[in-house]
UniProtKB/TrEMBL annotation:
Name the UniProt record assigns to this protein: GHMP kinase N-terminal domain-containing protein
GO annotation, biological process: isopentenyl diphosphate biosynthetic process, mevalonate pathway
UniProt GO MF annotations: ATP binding; mevalonate kinase activity
InterPro entries per the UniProt record, alphabetical: GHMP_kinase_C_sf, GHMP_kinase_N_dom, Mev_gal_kin, Ribosomal_Su5_D2-typ_SF, Ribsml_uS5_D2-typ_fold_subgr
PANTHER family found in the cross-reference section: MEVALONATE KINASE
GHMP kinase N-terminal domain span: 49-136
Keywords linked to the UniProt accession: ATP-binding, Cytoplasm, Kinase, Lipid biosynthesis, Lipid metabolism, Magnesium, Nucleotide-binding, Transferase
Pfam families: GHMP_kinases_N (PF00288)
Pathway: Isoprenoid biosynthesis; isopentenyl diphosphate biosynthesis via mevalonate pathway; isopentenyl diphosphate from (R)-mevalonate: step 1/3
GO cellular component entries: cytosol
Keyword Lipid biosynthesis in record: yes
């Protein structure tokens, strides 16, 4: 029986929430993720998401009855933080099921469809972005109802060596589904439609910079300000961000956001070595989890983190 593969988490670089309404989004895989192996067990796993994934697999593969399993999970990926943890978990579990039953390793399209189906259980109306990035890895230009593809967005040398940070604001109290529903009301108004269009324009600028291998961080900050305007960023996240903005450091939340408590992780993009040193000093003073990462083109593990 083969070992289950490693599936990376993801960052939405631009296009949160607007992607649900047909606008393009940019996302990237990161070197934090999940790997899983199944062992026979006496009792079933009671988690509803796991049972939902089991049900999808059973129906798709024509298995009359699944046996009980114990899940051996190896994960460096925080949950409820906008990093695609539910999609990575589903991909790893489906892959482990294929391995346990000695089915051929699923191709990207098949695994994508399975994970997308599972994600709808968690998010209601999943855009498909998280499954696309988790399954295929690399930099993804994604548009809803369009087949996922990399579209030539291979990282150039400048972006490959660009150090970034993820800084934790704490998990959101709200689910992704709740945040999507919150934005849905605003999206009906002319103001909401305009804000979503502006987020899409940020995505276009960032994509153009990737294609030119131009490291420019200001469009990420513009994107964050728009996310603030659509009401998905809480006070805790904004207070942390202001600590960075005092020194001109560009940053943005990643994922669906959160209001009542945390908003997940902040993507921090220092432009200089001095800004890197300042950012790390702030992280350590605030004592929140942080990870130093780089974007990547492949499914690679990060063996070092600062969590």
């Amino acid at each position: 029986m083969r070992t289950g593969r490693f599936f990376p988490g993801k960052l939405i670089l631009s296009g949160e929430h607007s992607v649900v309404y047909g606008y393009p989004a940019l996302a990237a895989s990161i070197d934090l993720g999940i790997q899983m192996r199944l062992q026979p067990a006496q009792r079933p796993v009671v988690d509803p998401y796991v049972q939902h994934i089991f049900s999808i697999f059973q129906q798709q593969m024509g298995i009359e009855k699944l046996r009980n399993f114990e899940l051996d999970i190896q994960s460096t990926l925080p949950q409820k933080s906008g990093l695609g943890s539910s999609a990575a978990f589903a991909a790893a579990l489906f892959d482990a099921l294929f391995a346990f039953y000695d089915f051929p390793e699923p191709d990207e399209e098949k695994l994508f469809q399975l994970v997308w189906q599972a994600e709808n259980f968690v998010h209601g109306n999943s855009s498909g972005l998280d499954p696309a990035v988790v399954v295929s890895a690399g930099i993804i230009h994604f548009q809803k109802q369009e087949k996922f593809q990399k579209r030539g967005l291979v990282l150039g040398k400048n972006w490959q060596k660009q150090d970034l940070y993820l800084w934790d604001t704490g998990p959101a109290s709200e689910s992704t589904k709740e945040m999507v529903e919150r934005v849905a009301e605003l999206a009906k108004s002319p103001k909401g439609k305009l804000l979503l269009q502006k987020i899409s324009q940020c995505s276009e600028v960032i994509e153009a910079n990737f294609l030119k291998d131009k490291v420019e961080t200001s469009p990420f900050w513009e994107n964050h300000q728009l996310l603030n305007e659509i009401g998905v960023v809480g006070n805790t996240a904004n207070e942390q961000i202001q600590q960075l903005r005092k020194y001109g450091i560009d940053c943005k939340i990643v994922g669906a956001g959160g209001i009542k408590t945390g908003s997940g992780f902040i993507l921090v993009l220092p432009a200089t070595q001095q800004q890197m040193a300042i950012a790390e000093k702030i992280f350590l003073e605030k004592r929140n989890r942080f990870y130093r990462i780089r974007l990547n083109n492949t499914k690679e593990k990060n063996e070092k983190s600062n969590g």
